[in-house]
Amino acid sequence: MNELNTMNAPRIGFVSLGCPKALTDSELILTQLSAEGYATSKTFQGADLVIVNTCGFIDDAVRESLDTIGEALAENGKVIVTGCLGNRTGDGGGNLVRQMHPSVLAVTGPHATQEVMDAVHLHVPKPHDPFIDLVPAAGIKLTPKHYAYLKISEGCNHRCSFCIIPSMRGDLVSRPIGDVLNEARALFEGGVKELLVISQDTSAYGVDVKYRTGFWDGKPVKTKMLDLVAQLGELAKQHGAWVRLHYVYPYPHVDEILPLMAEGLVLPYLDVPFQHAHPDVLKRMKRPASGERNLERLLKWREACPDIVVRSTFIAGFPGETEAEFEYLLDFLKEAQIDRAGCFAYSPVEGAPANALDGALPDAVREERRARFMAVAEAVSTAKLQRRIGSAMQVLVDSAPSMGKKGGVARTYADAPEIDGTVKILPPTKASKTMKVGDFARVRIVGTSGHDLVGELL
Ligand code: SF4
Description:
The chain has twelve helices and 20 strands. By secondary structure, the protein is of the alpha/beta class. Iron/sulfur cluster binds at residues 156, 158-160, 163, 165-166, 200-201, 288.
């Protein structure tokens, strides 16, 4: 559990489950709690009330969320539930959380800070003397101080057949460009060295407001991916920081971002959730940009910016996937040279339209294809890591090494926190090479270790 420190204030327990988008919802609620003078508790027993921010995406996450709510009820008794699971219906059409745990005080869907705060006020009244001045301009962050997620929009206009996110989070709503850039600047000024841009579909930023022109710093800026990324890149340059883009669909206009990467304004790293490569499977999945020539586009990106690293996720064993379609996917993986690829064996999500598709594959086939996929993905990735041996790279330190004793952990531009690999730094032998978490350093890559690199400080 996460903890805010204020003396003699009512204490709220907070559990944050789910993806980075849920994490930013948690940060907004924690920021508001802190602004109003509430403290947080690390234990359920020490809290006056517990908030559980849930995930409802896959069945395991639903189970984990329901179990956590049960635990909080057993140990504390006063529980507010928020997040994606709050919007799920159970058998018979009622609210799933209320059906499973009728004694919860309130249930809301995702991005519902105000509703959650209203429920908190009802059950644990606001303290009299809010510590407003204690809240940093960038809000409360649950990530380490040197990196932060920046959510640029909520919801999604697509209707991928395996996904229920739009039914839980609604259609795309882009945040005003001025607000997004103000938050980014406050984060950099607060010491953030790496900003991770997230949304359900980063390429679609501004579509819902027809790329409306907003204002920031007294000048007009369009609510559009290219304009946003260019401004973020300038801000990052001023503060000597990194900007990393996640959930980018391969639409033609993404090509315009590549020069910014080649120039060094944003990291030459793209997280593109392809999910599959065969056009017929992509059609059955109802994927955005499924008509685009993804392989051609990717090769063009590599030409425009040879350093680019592409990470992606895929699904193996989608209903109706033939052996030939699966092999097409493996060929794509090899030709596209995806640097970091994750793969899930298809698993039906309750309420998703894909459940009604013909041709469901046995679990064993889905699992066997996932394993075959990962073997190819690892071979591609390992060969790419090997090629880095001998090169000098800039890294951001996540865990500081100490002289002559312990090694540290850092990441290069090729690795996003939590999902990609790391660089294990050998213990430095000179005092001049000591460093802190959040410092940038240069290392010489001297080897690999599984999905990670090994480096020595230069
Ligand atoms: S793009 Fe598809 S998978 Fe992603 S949130 Fe939207 S509907 Fe779901």
